[in-house]
Every structure is written in C-alpha cells, then in structure tokens.
Amino acid sequence: MEAVVPRIGVLAVGRNTFDVPYAEQVLSSAWQSLLSLDVELCGEQTILFDADQVVPALESLKQQSVHLIIQLQVTFTDAAMTMEIVRQIDVPLLLWSFPESRSGGRLRLNSFCGINLAAHALSRAGLGYEYAHGAPDDDQVLEQISVLAKAGAVKRSLKGTRIGVIGQHPDGFDACMFSHDECAELFGVEIDEHDLIEFLDGLKVLDDDSAQSHFDERKKVLVNLEDMDREATIKSLKAYEGMRRLVEEKGYAGLAVRCWPDFFTHYGGAACGAIAMLNENFIPGGCEADVHGVITALILQRLAGEPAFNTDLVDMDRESDTCVFWHCGQAPVQMADPEVDVRATIHSNRKLPLLNEFPLKPGRITMARFSKGHGRATMVLGGGEMVRAPLPFSGTSGVAKLDSPIGEVLDNLMRAGLEHHTAIVYGEFRPALRKLAVLLNMEITELTG
C-alpha cells in the first residue's frame, strides 16, 4: 500500500500595479520548487489579478478534490480574493509570501503585507490558516508545505470512511469506549456495530476448506505452523476469512473486535492471528473492540504507507531506560526482526492458537493515540527507536528507547490519563500528526521530547 499522495491546489494572486515581470519570475521559481515535492500539483502557473479570475480557477480545483490550497502571494493584494477562496473550498489554506531585496528603490512585490492583510481578515471571520514567508526555494517552507499537505490529505481521506466493530468492549475497559457522534464529527468516520455471538456462530458454519488457502499462506510465513493444534488453528484462520468477508462486503477500512473471552470460550480459537493478518493486508485491526485504536492505526498507515500495530505499553525500566511494546500476537509480519524466525504460538493465558510470535525490528518509530484522557479529544504523540533485542515477552513485542528518559515518559503518560493501547508505525510522522491535530481542533500531548 502506498501512503496517501496529497493534492495541492495552487493559486497565485497579485496586482498589476507592482512589478509583474518580477512577480512572474517568483511564481515560476516557486512552482518549480513545488514540483519537487511528492505531491500532485493542481492549478495554473498564472497570476490572478482580481476576484473574477479566482472564481473559475477555484471551480477547477474543486473538481480535483484538492487537500490543501496554497495562495502564492506574489505581490500585495487586499483580502478579497483570499476570502473568496475560503468561501469556495473547505480545505486547509496556506498563505506564502516572498521576501525581496532592500534595494533602496521601489518595493517591487510587497508580498508579506498581502498575507498580513489576508490573515487579519481570516482571523476576524474565525477562519483558520497557515502561513509561510520565505524564498521560492526555501527548504523549511517546502518541508512545512509537505507536512501540511500530508495532514490535509489524511484528514480528507478519513471523511466517509467506515469502520466495523464486532462486539462490545469488555467490562472495565473504559479505554475502548467510543461515541458514534464524536467519530463522525471529529473524523467523518462512520462506525457499524455487529453482534459478537452472531458473528462467531457464523464462523462455526464456515467450511474448513475456506481456511485452507490461508493455512497454506501462513505455512510460508510461520516456520512451525504445523506444530500448532490443527483444529484450533483452522478456527483462527476461519475467523480471518470471516473478518475479511465482512470488510469486503461492507467496505470497511478497519475492524475492531472483542477478542476475549468469547473467541476462546464460545468459538474455540484465537482472534489474534486473524487480526495480525488484517494488519498485514492494510486493514487496521484492534482487539478489545478498540475503535479509537483502529482509527489511530488507520491514520498512521495512511501517513506511512506501512501497516501499524495497536499495542500495550507493558514495561518501563529506568535502569536500561527502555520500555516494551507488546500485544498477544497481532503485529504484522512486516514489523518482524529479519534476523529472527517468525513463529506461530498459542495465547499465553488461553493456550489456543493462532498468534504471530517475533521480536519487533529495530528502527525509528512513531507512537500515537487518539485519546479521551480527562474527557478531552487529544492527540497523544511520542517517538523513539525500537532496538534489536531478544523477544521480551511471548507473542509480538519489542524493546524501545524513547526520545525522553523513561521516567519522564512514565510521568507524562500517567498524567495524561492515556489509554492502555497506543499505535506504533515505523518512521517519523509526528510533524504531520501535529498538523492533523490542529486541523481536527484537537489538543496535543507530547509523551517525549
């Protein structure tokens, strides 16, 4: 799966009473810089001199469903064209102005004054905006644009997304509570609920042959698969088949599942391996019916183009200054340490297969959680390095050295009232997540420096 590719709409505005040939040079240079980004660029390399020219340009951009509008303020203008832009398209807006030489002569662009006027008009109207002031080839500006565009693309991609949840969260697991209305208002995500026992009874009537292709595939991945109890293993693989069919039928982007105790007591197989296979196939899965965990994993997946993993943070050791991310056995095999065999195992408490087992590979990680600690919608973020280490606990787990001392992280985590699940993905994506939180009007809590 590829990460989302942002579509940026570009509108260059100016006045013909300024130095138009010089403004056109600035526009050309800025356009070339934008072409160097990993984005799809929409718009025309033309200066718009009045609101009448802006309207048809905006109509074209609306048809292309852009994720971000950049207003290239190549000369001074009043705020009329800016206000027309925000009235027409409900996407993030970035105002980019350009410095000019202090020559002692004519002010050729007066670009910054233009975005200053526009920002004031937007603020009076209670409308949000971003801004940048720098040369057309300014690397910091281009990085700012890239990050904002990714955040805008992820926000837009969530709108209209559907996520399934099978069963209710276990009693006492308030961390897995969710609100249909809040998910719709914050993210534009629709949640469909399914009865757990009805789903499990549906699995029971599936023919074992429906799991055979999955068994053959897992044999290539899990070196000891045939050592597992065959009947229980087939049940776990049938659970994946049932989940896969539900996702395909309903068009779900992710699936949250109440895994215990009913999968073991009513059905006789583990959900963990099935959820791992969902993750591996870019359908974020979460146990304990954790809808917010699935939404967070989906966001990370769309930023990274790699599967995410909903984990428990189970150990914090001040002496080694490390922590352990763990969950029973649902990490995707893409996260396995390549120097260690990927194995099948049984659930540590319920003693039934099928679970993945491996230590997580070394590398940079981003951790995130859409949290309701203290009753507020918050984006909780952290970063660190997964280190190569022996498997710390059975299932799928990894040892990480975070960006702040582990004692500080522990204090930050507990004071934030963070849920016991956090999602991790390989790579550094906190800048885009911070921008996404702003676009979603969420607070941000930093667990690490």
Task: Please provide a brief summary of the model.
With 449 residues, this protein is an alpha/beta fold. Helix content is 38%, strand content 24%.
SSE layout:
Elements: E1 7-13, H1 20-35, E2 40-48, H2 51-63, E3 68-73, H3 80-88, E4 93-97, H4 111-124, E5 130-133, H5 139-158, E6 162-166, H6 180-187, E7 190-194, H7 196-204, H8 212-221, H9 230-250, E8 254-257, H10 262-267, H11 272-280, E9 285-286, H12 291-304, E10 309-317, E11 322-327, E12 343-345, E13 355-359, E14 363-371, E15 378-387, E16 396-402, H13 406-416, E17 421-426, H14 430-439, E18 443-446
Parallel strand pairs: 1-2, 1-3, 3-4, 4-5, 6-7, 6-8, 8-9, 13-16, 15-18
Antiparallel strand pairs: 10-11, 10-17, 11-16, 12-13, 14-15, 14-17, 15-16
Helix pairs in contact: 2-3, 5-14, 7-9, 9-11
